[in-house]
Every structure is written in structure tokens, then in C-alpha cells.
Amino acid sequence: MNKSIMLGYDYLFWQQQRIQSEVLAPLNGHYIVVGGSGSGKSTAVLYWLYKARHFKTNLYIADFKASNEFKGITPNFAQFEDCYDLIKSFYRDFQDTPEGGDGSIKILLIDEIAGLLAHFGMTKETKAKADEIRSILSSVLMLGRSRNCFIWLSMQRYSANIFPSSSGSADNFHVCVGLGRLTVDGRKGLFAGEHFEGEETLQFGQARGIVLIDGQPLRSIILPKASKRKLLALLKQN
Q1: What is the distance between the alpha carbons of residues 138 and 132, in angstroms, rounded to a whole number?
Q2: How many distinct structural domains can be found in the chain?
Q3: Is-above-0.85 flag for pTM?
Q4: In this structure, what is the dihedral angle of CA atoms 174, 58, 49, 13, given to the nearest 10 degrees?
């Protein structure tokens, strides 16, 4: 079985050269994708989930802002404040998974994690929930690789406030993708110190950006043309 997920193509230097992320060997399962509205990040996530359909996957989706772009793919789905209970459910599944995994890949996809954390952090009563979510994510990011349990985050802007810098959690993402034109802070947070020849000529835009895969140099990326509606329909069939 092919043990990789095709992310897209390197369009700057190597036309039609595929960019792939190994899933099982080595384990490259923690994803973060950042991009503004219309950058194609939701389509990218749907495409990657579609490419991962051949694996035995247990998928949890927390759609805090109720975009409905991922609704119907899995019964493990929550919106608004219910995302908190879903994240805890995934964490229990993670804790029950033995070292080496149980033959399946478990993915927790959180859309707009910054909004979720900001919501729970607004009052003293709910701040404990935001801290608990950060603790859960940090634990899975550090220990999930050995159990085939992974975190996928999708957001418009990357903020260092998501994880305390002292935790080192952000360093545990295996695949970092920035689509569209990133902010200066977002660029630094995801790709600090990483550059490549020709990056200044990069044409940022919808479905175009940069990608950093653990153990590989920073590269340009373009997503294949795909219909979000069709991808969602295909994923619902599975």
C-alpha cells in the first residue's frame, strides 16, 4: 500500500513534481495549514482527507465556526462549544491507543483553533477549558506519533498564542502549509529561518503557497484543481 499522501505539486522549479507526505513510515501526521479567506485551505484539507481514504482512519472534526465545509464526513463531528467535548473524546481515544497504534490512524481536525481558544478564554469560568484544550493538543503533538494519533489544524492566521512558546508544541508539526499571501508574523511563526532560492518570485494566490515537510527543504506548492463540493460528496460516500 502507498504510505504517502499527495499534498500537491512543486510549481516553481519542478513542474508536475509531486509533493508527498509519508504517513506511516516515517510518521508525518501532524498538519497545520494557514490561509486567508479564498486561499483554498478548506479545499486542501478535503483533498488530503480524500487522498488518505485508503487508510483505516478514525476522524474527529471540530468545526467551531460552523462553516459546514466538513459536515457529514464523520459521525465524530461538533460545532461551537460542543467542540470541547469532541476534543476530550478524541483525547480519551488517544489515551486508550497502545504504543505502536491499533492498526488505524486517528486524526483530530480543528478548523479555526484560534477562534475556539479565544472563545473559551473570554471568562474566568471557561478559561480552564481553553487551557485544557491547549494541554490536550500539546500532549498529542508530542506523543501521538508513536500511536498514529495526529492533529490537523486549519486557520486563517497563525498566532503564537495558540501554544506557549515554552511548550515547543508548534515544533512538532510535520507538515506546515501556507496558502495565499501570509502575514509577516504568520510567515515567521510557521517558517522561521526557512527560505529557498526564487521565493521572491513566487506568485502567491488561491491554492498557491509554500510547504515545509519535516526533514525536507521549504518548497513552493500548488494544489490540484478540485471541486470542494465533489470532494465533500466523495468523502461522505466513504
Answers
A1: 10
A2: 1
A3: yes
A4: 20
Residues 211 and 28: their CA atoms lie apart, in Å, by 13
CB-based contacts of 51, cutoff 8 Å, min separation 6:
5, 6
Amino acid at 40: G
Residue whose C-alpha cell is 527560505: 195
Rounded to whole angstroms, how far apart are CA atoms 123 and 237?
41
Non-local CB neighbours of 150 within 8 Å, separated by 6+ positions: 29, 30, 31, 105, 106, 107, 108, 140, 144
Range of the domain at 102: 4-237
Residue type, 11: Y
* pLDDT 10s digits, 72-121: 999 999 999 999 999 999 999 999 999 988 989 999 999 999 999 999 98
Strand-by-strand arrangement of the 17-22 sheet: 17-22, 4-10, 219-222, 208-213, 175-179, 31-35, 149-155, 105-111, 57-63, 77-79
How many Å separate Cα 161 from the centre of its chain? 17
CATH number of the domain within which 66 lies: 3.40.50.300
Q: How far apart are CA 169 and CA 167, in angstroms?
A: 5
d(CA 28, CA 172): 10
Outline where 35-174 has alpha helix (H): 41-51, 83-96, 113-120, 124-143
